[in-house]
């Protein structure tokens, strides 16, 4: 069975590496994808008729925006699964994907503002519904991350966080529509994907970029989940077990431990 | 369930009435906010009148946060929530009761603040229709804010740093209420030509969403503890 | 700000933020992996019956 093989390799190396073949392949695909997207975005595609070269920002702006929403939605789905099955892993998936969603949301705002300065003559435009609602949503999810950061009993924290993640996902359409009605006008490019104004290669580059960023989201979430899982296990094992574990490792340098038995736990404490 | 909810609401409001914290701290805080806004806007009569709906709602939200924090801490500080559950009260009833209690407090707060903006900012209610819009907006928003507040209050109850956590969680959630209620008040107080009644749909939707979620999720949040 | 600078900032911001985040995640993973025994360090293998396939 694969699990046995996995265990065997892990104990053989003593220290499980941060990667396995599946995620490694995904990672390499992402890297290649980014190179192709960058090459297309900077060398192959033509400047836009209206926006000129600034259209090249779109190749990262639109994908990170989509990535952010995907992160929020995946987080809500994982949270719903957590509340049904109470599986700690689902809670950690929610944490990983929302954290990445927030990061992507911040990048959406930054790239949007950087695009807005030369285009509108100002970094921020309150009339732009998508940017304003993204800002509100990012703040909403920053609250989620803050809630996760307080510590305390892990089960009750997972439960609270799951409820917040689900509520926040329901806020997405409410926030977007209320901001839309608030201004009732948008200076944003009406969805460039669907209005058929883009040239073929531009459209292809954009779609490819969205695909690569989504793959990257999967890969990054996996990495982040793996970290969250290790930290969860570490906390589950408790400090005592962790120290025992480290002691067993330290037995390779036996003489040092025998010479000064107090030094060992003390150094552990400062690292924890 | 409704009787239980009334019972809880009555209990909370009695506690508030006896401790007088809402009257001696939350209401003065709201008035203070109105005064500070006047300083911030350089006491410009025109600006204050034009922006009075928005300033009013910001003051309501900030002062409301204090009231929400108090009402949730009431239960969780002395673990009276456990006693409530032991007395066979269902979580949805507790949620509904606390929402009612906070709504009533928010309405009292708004009544005072409306007088404040009329007096200090020179806002004016011109017709009976405007007064009705004002009243309905207040009631619907209060229910929405109270439902969300009760839910998020329970979420942050009993954890470290809840005083700072509740605002950062709740205020972005209340942003749509601020938008909707401000627009409705814009119409009622005549500071912008919008159809205020249309905005009630947004406020109503918000209130319904959070009432439903609260009734469903409150039990999850009260589990064990 | 010139168009070229805007484009560069946008792309570098995306690359930089994700890059720094990834490095920090990998470093923290390495640190945490040292504290967790190998048989519990993977979600897939930890959830499967804990005693099975354990070399002892």
CATH fold node name of chain A: Four Helix Bundle (Hemerythrin (Met), subunit A)
Rounded mean pLDDT of chain A is 81
* Mass-distribution shape of chain B: globular
H/E topology pattern of chain A:
HHHHHHHHH
Largest sheet of chain A: none
Description:
The complex is a heterotrimer of chains A (272), B (225) and C (56). Chain A has 272 residues and is mainly alpha-helical. Chain A has a single domain (25-188, 197-239), classed as Four Helix Bundle (Hemerythrin (Met), subunit A). Chain A has helices spanning 2-13, 21-44, 55-85, 88-120, 129-149, 154-183, 200-250, 254-259, 263-271. With 225 residues, chain B is an all-alpha fold. Chain B has one domain. Chain B starts with a helix and ends with a helix. The model of chain B has no long low-confidence stretch (mean pLDDT 88). By secondary structure, chain C is mainly alpha-helical. Chain C is built from 2 helices and no strands. Chain C has helices spanning 3-35, 43-47. The longest helix of chain C has 33 residues, at 3-35. Chains in contact: A-B, A-C. Chains A and C meet through helix 1, helix 3, helix 4 and helix 7 of A and helix 1 and helix 2 of C.
What is the compact description of this entry?
Chain A has helices at residues 2-13, 21-44, 55-85, 88-120, 129-149, 154-183, 200-250, 254-259, 263-271. Chain A has 272 residues and is mainly α.
